[in-house]
Amino acid sequence: RVRIPLPVSNILWEHCIRLANRTLVEGYANVKKCSNEGRALMQLDFQQFLMKLEKLTDIRPIPDKEFVETYIKAYYLTENDMDRWIKEHREYSTKQLTNLVNVCLGSHINKKARQKLLAVIDDIDRPKR
């Protein structure tokens, strides 16, 4: 057995948690269809994940917790709010933003609004190319 000093252990936990949270968002971004109930279940699953993490580690605040919560909650935004949200949240990839818009199509965003939001994402992504 090798004892890991607490500061090293905390750094390892922080990186593992951050990676897990980033992976959750990436997984949510791969969803093709999702109802309001499905998003509610995502929130519930994430809350369960956080509760288990809090028992395993003393790291507070949980790294990238807001990153996951914000992405899940963005599903409920109206067209105008989502337009603003997309412009303000550059921490998400183009793929993650595009999928969010596509998943909202039909539930509370129409095709015209979808095209407008995808154009906003494309405009943000254009300088990166």
UniProtKB/TrEMBL annotation:
One of its GO terms (biological process) is retrograde transport, endosome to Golgi. GO terms for cellular component: cytosol; EARP complex. GO terms for molecular function: SNARE binding. It holds the Pfam family Syndetin_C. Residues 3-122 form the Syndetin C-terminal domain. This is VPS50 protein. The gene is Vps50.
